[in-house]
Amino acid sequence: MEITLLIRILSSVLADSSPLVIASMGETISERAGVINLSLDGSIMLSAMSGFAAAYLTGNVVWGFLAATMVGALIALLIAFASITLHQDQVAVGFVLTLLGAELANFLGGPFVRRPGPRVPHMPIPLLRDIPVVGEIFFRHDILVYASVVLIVVVWFWIFKTQAGLRLRGVGERPEAAFARGVNVNRLRYLYTVTGGALVGIAGAAYSLNVKLGWSEGHTLGNGWIALAIVIFGGWHPLRVAFGAYLFGALTSLGGILQRRIPGVPTQVFQAAPFALMILVLLFVSGGALERLLSLFPPRIRRVLREALRVAPPSALGRPFVTE
Amino acid sequence: MTYSQRLVNLLLGLAPIALALMLSTLVLIAAGAPPLEAYKHLLQGASESPAKIADVLVVWVPLVLCSVGLLFTFTAGLWNIGVEGQIIFGVIFATWVARDIYLPAILLLPLMILAGMIGGALWGLLAGALKVYGGIHEIFGGLGLNFIAMTTNIWLIAKPWRPELGATMQGTDPFPAAAWLPRLAGLRLSPVSLLLAVTAVVVVFFTLRGTLWGLQLKAIGKNARSAYLLGIATNRHMLLSFALCGALAGLAGVIQVSGVWGRDIPQISGGIGYLALLVTMLSGFRALGVAPVALFFAAIGVGAARLHLRMQLDPSLAGVLEGGLVLSVLLVAGLRTRLLISREG
Amino acid sequence: MTVRRFTPPLVLAREAMKVELRGIKKCFGTVRANDGISLTVEPGTIHGLLGENGAGKTTLMKVLSGFLSPDGGRVLLDGEETLFSSPAQAIEKGIGMLHQDPLDFPPLKVLDNFLFGRDSGFLQKRERARKEVLELSERFGFALDPETYVNTLTVGERQQLEIVRLLSLGVEVLIFDEPTTGISTPQKVTLFATLHRLAKEEGKSVIFVSHKLEEVLELCSEVAVLRRGKVAGEIAMPCTSEELVRLMFGQVITTRAADEVSLGEPVLELRELGVHTYRLDLSPASLLVRAGEVIGLAGLEGSGQRLLLRACAGLIKPSRGSLFLRGEDMSGKSYQKFLEAGGAYLPAGRLEEGLIPGLNLAEHFVLARRGRAPFFINWALARGDAGRKIEEFNIIGNPSTLVEGLSGGNQQRTLLALLPDSLPLLLLEHPTRGLDVESALWVWDRLLERREEGTAVLFTSTDLDEILERSDRILVFSGGKILQVLDASQTDLEQLGYLIGGKRG
Question: What is C19-249's CATH number?
Answer without folding.
Answer: 3.40.50.300
